[in-house]
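User: Please fill in residues for this 363-position structure.
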């Protein structure tokens, strides 16, 4: 390698190091882009189906969202907050009930399996409580989790920045897209425009499918909990729909709250809640999602779970929330840039070179 090549490699490594040091800022920027894509969906629908000018469609969407947020804050927020507090207060009591249930049956299970219960403590629940008060520990953990959420949501400046930037990107997307394209080499600008359009379409399709899926999950959870008589129905149904945004992890967390409340009433009702949520997730995974995502965005479940783990470790809670949008965009970039523009052309060039060599006359 010559001096110029070494210098280019050093510049590339320095650029990657700079990007990694700015990963938090880039993740916030990506969050604004995702929100902008979501805002663009109804704006484009008004443009295409109703023939509205973009400025009027954009103002109508902003006004509609503002009214929806205001109505939701007035009608849904107070009962949701009240019911969610009740859920949090009942979780330690539910854990103690679960320990008592285990304590009442574990010796009989061990005796049936091993034929002897010698050496076991008299009370499994007491063993746990002597080491730590499970109810208090759980309550402190939940308070810490809520504190983390509060800190994330309390970063008012970051939230305002994301909202303002998303609104600006939605109001005038073409200048920002043109700026991003001009940063690429001149020979690749036309192709990059196509790639960015594919990323935008993939994100939009994924969001529409996720929105429909979340509404269906919330509706099925509300109906099922109402039939089982597990209260509060509204808070648990909304939590099921909201946490459906985080596949694999979200549905598991959403089961904890109604399952804990049902456990205070009876173990069989808690089991019925678990079966209900397992049924909802199977219907969502094998019926709703394939129908909604047909010919749109297909993500392998293992890849989605791995991406959530990796981005949560590298980028924190916001990385976990943005894991699937990042994977959707990365999937398009790998397919269009790495495979189509690099690997396929490389293989084609190799094949042409080999054919030319075979056809060349021998000296």
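Assistant: Residues filled in for all 363 positions:
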């Amino acid at each position: 390698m010559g001096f110029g090549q070494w210098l280019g490699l050093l510049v590339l490594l320095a650029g990657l190091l700079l990007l990694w040091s700015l990963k938090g800022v880039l993740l916030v920027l990506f969050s604004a882009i995702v929100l902008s894509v979501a805002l663009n969906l109804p704006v484009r629908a008004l443009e295409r189906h109703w023939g509205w000018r973009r400025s009027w469609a954009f103002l109508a969407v902003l006004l509609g969202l503002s009214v929806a947020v205001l109505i939701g804050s007035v009608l849904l927020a107070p009962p949701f907050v009240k019911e969610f507090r009740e859920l949090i207060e009942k979780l330690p009591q539910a854990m103690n009930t679960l320990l008592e249930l285990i304590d009442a049956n574990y010796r009989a299970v061990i005796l049936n399996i091993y034929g002897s219960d010698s050496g076991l403590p008299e009370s499994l629940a007491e063993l746990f409580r002597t080491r730590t008060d499970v109810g208090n520990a759980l309550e402190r953990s939940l308070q810490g989790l809520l504190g983390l959420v509060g800190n994330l949501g309390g970063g008012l400046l970051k939230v305002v920045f994301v909202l303002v930037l998303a609104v600006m990107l939605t109001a005038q997307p073409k200048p920002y897209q043109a700026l991003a394209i001009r940063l690429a080499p001149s020979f690749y600008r036309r192709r990059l425009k196509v790639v960015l359009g594919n990323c935008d379409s993939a994100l939009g399709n994924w969001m529409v499918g996720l929105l429909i899926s979340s509404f269906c999950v919330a509706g099925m959870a509300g109906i099922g909990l109402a039939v089982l008589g597990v209260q509060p129905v509204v808070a648990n149904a909304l939590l099921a729909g909201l946490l459906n945004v985080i596949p694999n992890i979200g549905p598991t967390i959403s089961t904890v709250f109604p399952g804990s409340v049902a456990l205070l009433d009876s173990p069989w009702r808690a089991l019925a809640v678990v079966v209900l949520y397992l049924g909802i997730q199977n219907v969502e995974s094998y019926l709703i999602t394939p129908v909604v995502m047909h010919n749109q965005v297909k993500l392998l479940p293992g890849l989605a779970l791995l991406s959530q783990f990796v981005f949560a470790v590298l980028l924190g809670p916001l990385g976990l929330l943005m894991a699937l949008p990042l994977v959707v965009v990365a999937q398009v970039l790998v397919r269009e840039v790495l495979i189509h523009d690099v690997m396929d052309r490389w293989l084609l060039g190799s094949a042409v070179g080999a054919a030319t060599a075979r056809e060349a006359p021998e000296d």
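For context: The longest helix spans residues 189-228.
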